[in-house]
Design goal:
Length: 179
C-alpha cells in the first residue's frame, strides 16, 4: 500500500499557504521546519524572576546607630510574576509585573520570613545592539507574621520598596538598533 498526502500549513487568517509538504511512500509522519508553537487566542506568558542577596553595611533604627552582635547578617529577596511590555518608541520600553514576593532576613536574634504580593515596574533604554540600561522599582506588601515571626514581631503587615539601576548584556536578543 502506497500512501500519498499533502500537508498544507496556512497563515493565521487562513488566506495563504505558509508551508506545503507532499509525502509519498509508507511514511505516516512528516516534519515541517520553521514553525513555532502558539495557541490561538492565548499567547505564552512571560515571567519575571528576580533574586537579590542583601548584606547590611549600615545598622540604624529610627536614626540611632546600632551595633550588630553577629558579623554575618544577610537576607534574600525573591520576586516572581508575569510581566507585560509596552514599547511606545524604538529607544524606550516600559514593563509592568504583579507577582509573589518572599523575603528572608537573618537578624541578630531571629530568622525573619515575609511572604506577600508585589508590583514591579520599570523602564528599559537600549543604547547599543546588545546593551540596555534598566531602571525599575518594586513595592511589596507582605505578611510579617509568617511562621514563628508572630511570636517575634506582632505586626499585621509590612511593606517595602526598592529601586534598581542596572545594565543588561544579551548575546541572543539584539535590541534592533542600527547605528
Amino acid at each position: 500500500n502506497l500512501i500519498r498526502y499533502t500537508v498544507k500549513v496556512y497563515s493565521a487568517d487562513g488566506s495563504t499557504v505558509f508551508k506545503e509538504v507532499s509525502v509519498t511512500g509508507n511514511e505516516t509522519q512528516v516534519t515541517i521546519e520553521g514553525l513555532e508553537p502558539k495557541t490561538k487566542n492565548l499567547s505564552l506568558c512571560n515571567l519575571k524572576f528576580r533574586m537579590e542577596g542583601l548584606y547590611p553595611f549600615l545598622h540604624q533604627f529610627n536614626g540611632m546607630k546600632q551595633f550588630a552582635k553577629q558579623t554575618i547578617l544577610y537576607g534574600f529577596d525573591f520576586f516572581l510574576g508575569p510581566y507585560e511590555e509596552w514599547k511606545p518608541f524604538k529607544y524606550l520600553t516600559f514593563n509592568f509585573a504583579p507577582g509573589i514576593h518572599y523575603m528572608y532576613q537573618l537578624s541578630d536574634e531571629y530568622h525573619l520570613n515575609y511572604l506577600g504580593i508585589a508590583l514591579n515596574a520599570g523602564v528599559e533604554f537600549p543604547v547599543f545592539e546588545r546593551w540596555t540600561f534598566l531602571l525599575d522599582g518594586t513595592f511589596s506588601w507582605d505578611n510579617a507574621n509568617l511562621g514563628t515571626n508572630k511570636d517575634i514581631q506582632p505586626f499585621d503587615y509590612s511593606w517595602q520598596w526598592q529601586t534598581t539601576l542596572g545594565v543588561r548584556y544579551s548575546r541572543k536578543h539584539l535590541n534592533g538598533l542600527n547605528r
